[in-house]
């Protein structure tokens, strides 16, 4: 039984749900709250002696190199969340290559380590992105959310799909699926984010236990802004986006504390690289 923990490192104003109201060009004009929120997460993880994978946005790494170095120095895995947080299927292959390779280089320069993991913004992965990631020497992608209910999630059509959570889709390249809970033939997202904030903790906990009974791995994700009920409120966005972004922000910290107390989590890298290879890097 293995549970894997991931944090997608981006600031509150970079989220897809707020894009209607916040233009990419105006990011610099908003108050950055990522450092304070990451420091809280690092403290909670340290209290339980737990290590995680942090998928860092290149834009954030460029503004906060010391913060990324601090995460790395505390023993967590640094992985890549692209540079500009654009939906992968909205970019040409050339643009995607540019976005992801610039972010990877930045993170490798900051940490002095090799970056092997990638997660697409909003899980917007595509077939051609997988080929590009593997050509850039990534070793895994963790962006596949096999849920049909959500219109923004990506799809993979050219790779073999099976019932495993972690599988080798190309030579030396792994896919790490986000976890879901199967109920009455429906696949419910059970991996974190809004669903973690919305569903009462004891039910969420039962779901994880049931997933771990049926599958080899459980994968959880969360964002720093989800720990921040004091973040500025954006009003002129669609109601369902508002719900997704703002529901139960004040509950995240306590729920997360219980989660990392009840389950023993590891970073993704630990199961992708054999111990020997991990030490060599
Ligand atoms: Zn993101």
Set down the secondary structure blueprint.
Blueprint: E1 2-9, H1 34-47, E2 53-56, H2 58-63, H3 65-73, E3 77-80, H4 93-111, E4 117-118, H5 127-135, E5 140-141, E6 166-170, E7 173-176, E8 180-183, E9 186-189, H6 193-198, H7 201-214, E10 217-222, H8 239-246, H9 252-262, E11 265-266, H10 269-272, H11 275-280
Parallel strand pairs: 1-2, 1-10, 1-11, 2-3, 4-5, 5-7
Antiparallel strand pairs: 6-7, 8-9
Helix pairs in contact: 4-5
Zinc ion (ZN) binds at residues 8, 10, 81, 85, 121.
Description:
There is one protein chain. The relative contact order is 0.18. α4 (93-111) packs across α5. It contains 11 helices and 11 strands. It is 38% helix and 16% strand. It has a single domain (2-280), classed as Glycoside hydrolase/deacetylase (TIM Barrel, Alpha-Beta Barrel), CATH 3.20.20.370. It has 281 residues and is of the alpha/beta class. It is globular and about 45 Å long. The mean pLDDT is 92. The strands form 3 sheets. Strands 1, 2, 3, 10 and 11 form a 5-stranded parallel beta sheet that branches. Strands 4-5-7-6 form a 4-stranded mixed beta sheet, covered by helices on one side. Strands 8-9 form a two-stranded antiparallel sheet. The site of zinc ion (ZN) has 5 residues, from loops. Residues 8, 10, 81, 85, 121 line the site of zinc ion.
